[in-house]
Amino acid sequence: MTRVRFSVHRTVGEARLLAGTLESEGVSVEVRGEALVPLTGEIPSGETWVELWLAPSDVEQAQAVMAELRAREEAAAHVVECPSCHEENPGNFEVCWSCDKELPVGLPPRLRAV
User: Fold this and answer.
1) Angle between helical axes of 59-76 and 12-24 (0-180°, round to 10)
2) Which of 23, 57, 89, 110 has its CA 20 to 30 A from that of 78?
3) HEC letters along the chain
4) Beta bridge partners of 1
5) If 0-12 CB within 10 Å is exposed, 13-18 middle and 19+ buried, where does residue 6 land?
6) φ/ψ of residue 103, rounded to 5
7) How far is 108 from 90, CA to CA, in rounded Å?
8) End-to-end CA distance of the chain, in Å?
């Protein structure tokens, strides 16, 4: 079966996390280059990066999963204040971490100061 390169990662951990997420969505993933990671420093670093390869028919579904992950990441960068206890929660939380009350959908998020 022919495969196409979907993404390249500097670490095995990054690659395996994404591969696991894609596999949980039914996408067949092949991880290539893991065996070269211990050679970092001995060979050029770009040669030791880990690649995810997919069947061409799975690329569209994988891109949709990636878009959803990016949206969740953007939501997590915002802060939502709990209306019950006024504690700050990451924007991707559905329940307040402090009082366990459900956070209403559509609260205006604000950017977190870095």
Assistant:
1) 110
2) 23
3) CCCEEEEEECCHHHHHHHHHHHHHCCCCEEEECHHHHHHECCECHHHHCEEEEECHHHHHHHHHHHHHHHHHHHHHCEEEECCCCCCEEECCCCECCCCCCECCCCCCCEECCC
4) none
5) buried
6) -85, 130
7) 12
8) 46
Q: How far apart are CA 43 and CA 110, in angstroms?
A: 45
With contact defined as beta carbons under 8 Å apart, do 111 and 78 qualify?
Answer: yes
Interval 2-47: pLDDT, tens: 999 999 998 889 999 999 999 999 999 999 988 888 788 788 877 8
Tens of pLDDT, residues 59-68: 999 999 999 8
Percentage of the chain with pLDDT > 70?
Answer: 92
- 73-78 long-range contacts (CB < 8 A, ≥24 apart) are 75/109, 77/111, 77/112, 78/109, 78/110, 78/111, 78/112
pTM value is: 0.65
The single-letter code of the amino acid at 51 is: E
